[in-house]
Amino acid sequence: MNVLLQEGYLCIQAPLSFLLIGRVLSPFHLFIEMYGDEYCHYLEEGDLVVVSAPEGGEIGQAMILLELIRKYHAPLVVLPKGHPGSKRLTMVVSAGDHIEINCSIQRGTHPEQHLLCGSEDLAGIVLKRSEMGVDITGGDQMSITSLDRMIIPSLS
């Protein structure tokens, strides 16, 4: 299914979890920081930034996290596998032209941007950028809602 998406967000909801999707509005380099290494992932206009909340949470928090990447180009930090902090990550982010939701990976430990930890309810969903939005495949028990973009004012 192809869903129109411009500057706002799409929220895919399952009974206990959600995904928040936004499109990259202008190209930038996303830096991915790992223990002892760093790499750079180029994002083009129209690529996707996706926040996964496997146990649910506040949509406002997900919007802020998405905008930290999309607008402010904050780097992503990837934890080593087995890191105890992984259990405290309530939301995780991935960015690229396509993203697959997987429930069998540990949160925050995968630098590969095509994989994103999600709930069992949303596992198997594949999100692909399209010319005017997002192509969504997979997923049974979900609803999709369009949301307006969060505007973050500047002091100047």
Q: Tell me the strand percentage band.
A: 35-45%
Q: Major sheet: order of its strands?
A: 1-12-11-9-10
Query: Helix/strand-derived class?
Result: mainly beta
Instruction: Give the CA-based shape.
Output: globular
Count of all domains: 1
What's the helical proportion of residues? Answer: under 10%
Spans of 5+ residues with little confidence (pLDDT < 50)?
none
The largest pleated sheet is described as: 5 strands, mixed
The string of secondary-structure elements, in order, is EEEEEEHEEEEEEE
Mind telling me the C-alpha Rg? 15 Å
Distance between the termini: 41 Å
Number of strands: 13
Count the helices. How many?
1
Instruction: Return the average pLDDT rounded to an integer.
Output: 92
Write a compact overview of the structure shown.
By secondary structure, the chain is mainly beta. It has one helix spanning 59-70; strands at 2-4, 9-13, 18-23, 28-34, 37-43, 48-53, 76-77, 92-96, 98-102, 115-117, 126-130, 133-137, 143-147.
Structural features, described:
- With about 160 residues, the chain is mainly beta.
- It has one domain (about 1-145).
- Helix content is about 10%, strand content about 40%.
- The chain has one helix at about 60-70; strands spanning about 1-5, 10-15, 20-25, 30-35, 35-45, 50-55, 75, 90-95, 100, 115, 125-130, 135, 145.
- The chain has a 5-stranded mixed β-sheet with strand order 1-12-11-9-10, with no helix packed on it. Strands 8-6-3-2-13 form a 5-stranded antiparallel β-sheet, covered by helices on one side. Strands 5-4-7 form a 3-stranded mixed β-sheet, with no helix packed on it.
- A hairpin with a 2-residue loop joins strand 11 and strand 12.
- The longest helix is centred in the middle third of the chain and has 12 residues, at about 60-70.
- The model has no long low-confidence stretch (mean pLDDT about 90).
